Amino acid sequence: MKHMNSEVKEERTSNKNRIDLFLVPIVLIAAFLNLFKIWTDEYANAYYTAAVKSMLQSFHNFFYASFDPGGYVTIDKPPVVFWIQTISAKIFGFHGWSVILPQALAGIGSVLLLYVLVKRTFGVWAGRFAALAMALTPIVPAVSRTNNIDSMLVFTLLVATWMLFRAVRTAKFGWVLAAFAMIGVAFNMKMLQAYMVLPAFYVFYVVATKITWKKKVAFLTTATTLMLAVSVSWAVVVDSTSADKRPYMGSSQTNSVLELAFGYNGINRLTGNTSVTGSSHKQPAQTEQQTASSETKQSSNSSADSSQSSNQRKSSSSQKMQAPGGGNQNGMFNTGNPGPFRLFQKGLSDQISWLLPFVIFSIVGLFAGVKFKGPYTTKQKESLFWLAWLLPVAVFFSIAGFFHQYYLIMLAPPIAAFAGAGAVALWSMYKQHNGWKSWLLPGGILTTAALQVYIMSPYVSSIGAAPIAGVGALGVILALVLAVRKQRKNSLTNYLGAAAMVVLLAMPAYWAMTPIIYGGNSMLPSAGPDSSSGMGGPPSTATNSKQSGFNGMQPPGSSSGNSSSNNQMQPPSGSSNSGQMQMPGGSSNNSQMPNSFSSKSSSSKRKSGGMNAEVNQKLLNYLTKNNTGEKYLFATTDSTSAAPYIIKTGKPVMAMGGFSGSDPILTVSKLKAMIKKGEVKYFYLSGMGKGGQSDVITWIKENSKEIPSSKWQSTSSSAQQGPSGNGTLYEITLK
What angle do the packed helices 378-399 and 96-122 form, to 10 degrees? Predict the structure, then answer.
C-alpha cells in the first residue's frame, strides 16, 4: 500500500511539473497577437510616451509621472505602469516598442494566469480553452499592443486573484493581505477601476473559507484597510507636498490626486458628466471626450470645400457623432446607448461579446441545482467568484455615461473563465444525457453563432458575406447535429463538439488580428476592420476597409489619399468652423501645425496613438536657434501639440492647460513671473484647448509679438484653420 501511494505521489509530481504541450501553441498565439509589429509604432500613445521621455530625465519627474521634462504638469493617471514603462525604456532604449513591451507581456501573462486559475479546479481542458478564449478576445491584444494602462491593470488583478485562491486553499491570512494589497497596487495604475473586482473578492472569501464569521469580518477588515493604505499611499505623499515643489496634478481641477481619483477617473465615468458649459466642476469628463474625439481626426489634402459637400458632411457626421453632451444611436465613440443590452450593441459587441451567449448557458449549467444555503463545491465557489466579477462590471458598462471601448478588457477574464469551465461542464452534461442540461451545449452553440452573425453583419462590405454566412451556417448545422446525436456515443460526436468550439472562436480570432492586419490606434485602441481609426464600430461610407471609421475618414497610420470633404468630421459644438473636426491645440489641416498630424505612407514606422505627430522641423529649428536660456522650448495650450516635441527633443514644452487645455494651472500673474524669470518666451496658440485658460490666452495675445509665419512654417504649409482662427506663434519678453 505504501509503495502504491508513493507511486501515485510521484505520478502527481511528474504531471504537475510536466509542460502542457497544448498550452504552448496558445501562448505562441498570444505572443503573436500581442507582440508582432509593435516595433512599427514609433510614438505609441504620444501623451504617455512623452511622459516616459520626461520620467527618464530625473527622479523628480519619475516619481510624479510628469508629462513634460520641466515638471510643469503630470499625466492624468497614477504612476505605477509608467514606472514600469520607464524602466523598460531605460533597459532597452527609448522607443515606441519599449514602452509598449510591458503591456504586451502582461497580455501574455494574463493568458497564462487564466490557464492556471481555471485548470486547477475545472480541469486541464477547461484551462486550455479559457486561456485560448482570453488570447482571442479581440480587445485584449488590441489594448496590449499599446502603452495604455488596462492590460497591465488586468494582469495585476489576476495576480491578486491567484493570491486570493491560494489564501483560501492554504487557509493562510498572509495571502489574503497580499491579494488585497495587490488591488491597492492596481489602484495606483488606474484608480477606481481596480476596485471593480472587490465584490468578487469579498463574496468568494466569505463563501469559500471555513472559519467563523467573526474571523471573516476581522480578516476582511484588516485586508481592506491595508488595500486602502496602499491605494492612497502615493496620493497622500503627492497631495501633502507643497504645490510649488511638484508638478500640477494633470486633469484635476484642484491639483489633488484624490480629487482626480474620485472625480475625473471615478464618478465622472459613471455619470458621463459631459457638460460643455465650461463650468469647472463639469469639465474633467468633457475634456477627455473632446480631446480623444479630436485625436481621431486625420489630415485632408483638400484646402477647399464646396457648400454641397459641406452639407453632406454635416448630415453624415451628425448621424455618427455628436458633440460632448449629445447622443446618437451608437453613443460617444461607438459605446452604444445605456441599457440592459448595451454589450450587444454595435461598437461594444465586437470588442468583447463574441462568447457571451455561450457564457450565459455555461453559467446556467455550472449553477444548476445549487442551493442558496449550500454546501458548495469548489467549482461552484470559484464559479461564484467569476460571476461576481462579471456581473458588476457588465452592469457598469451597461449604464456608464462615459468610457472608451478598450476599458472592456475588464470583462475578458470572467468571460474567458466561464467559456473554459462551461465548455467542459456543458460537454459533460451533454454526454451524460443529463435531462434538460444536456440541451445547454447545442443551445449555447446556436445562440452564440447567431450573435456572431449579428456582430459581423455591419462589416459585410469590409470582410465579405462568406465568413458571416459560414459562421451562421456551421453554427446552426453543428448545433442541430449535436442535438440529433444526443443519444449516440462515438468519436464522431467528439469531433463535432470540437468543431463547434473552433467555429465559435474563428471570427474572434480574426477580429483579434485586425490591429495587425489593418493597423491599430494607440490612443483609442479597438479591434475590427476599422481598428486603425480608434473609434470602433462598423464602417460607414468607406469604400474599403482601410477607409473605415467615421464617414470613411483615413485611419491613423495611413496616408490621406482622398481629398473629399466627406473625410472630415464635425467639431465639438461651439466651434466656429462646423465643417471640420479640430485637433486640440491644432486644426483640420495639419501641415502648418507645430506637429503635423499625418503619417507618411512610405514610412516603415507608424506614428500612432491619435497623435500621428511629425515635428515641424522648421519651427523646431527656429525655437532652438532663438532660445536664450529659457527653460521651456515653447508653451502651448494642451498636450497634443507639446508631446511630439518632448518625444523628439527631450526638452521641456509647456502644456499650459494640461492634457486637453482645460486644467486651471496657470494664471496671468504666474505666467508673468515665469516670463520675467526667463523660463518661457514662445507661445504657440490655436483655436482649441482654451478651457480654463481663456484669461491667460487673452493676455498672451495682447502682450506679445506675433512671429511671421514665413520664419517657422514650411513653405508647403497652407493656412491652418482652427475654431478661433489660424495657429500663431507669439513671443513675449518682459523686463
Answer: 140
- Average pLDDT per 10 consecutive residues for the chain, totaling 735 residues: 43 61 96 95 93 98 98 96 98 96 98 98 97 98 96 98 97 96 97 96 96 95 98 96 96 92 78 46 41 40 37 38 37 82 93 96 93 85 97 95 93 98 94 88 96 95 92 94 77 85 95 93 90 57 35 32 35 34 34 37 48 76 95 94 94 94 93 95 77 83 93 61 57 85
Rounded (5°) CA angle 556-295-85: 80
User: What single letter denotes the amino acid at residue 100?
Assistant: I
Can you tell me the distance from the alpha carbon of 423 to that of 400, in angstroms, rounded to the nearest whole number? 31
471 grid coordinates: 459562421
Q: Is the peptide bond before 25 cis (omega within 30 degrees of 0)?
A: no
The grid coordinates listed for 441 are 451545449
Q: 3-class secondary structure for 401-421?
A: CCCCHHHHHHHHHHHHHHHHH
C-alpha 516: how far from its chain's center?
17
DSSP β-bridge partners for residue 729: 684
Pairwise CA distance, residues 714 & 710, whole Å: 8
DSSP track, 27-78: HHHHHHHHHTTGGGBSSSSHHHHHHHHHHTT-HHHHHHTBSSTT--BB-SS-
The SS3 assignment for 628 reads: coil
Residues sharing a CB contact under 8 Å with residue 700, sequence separation 6 or more, in sequence order:
671, 683, 685, 730, 732
pTM to 2 decimals?
Answer: 0.84
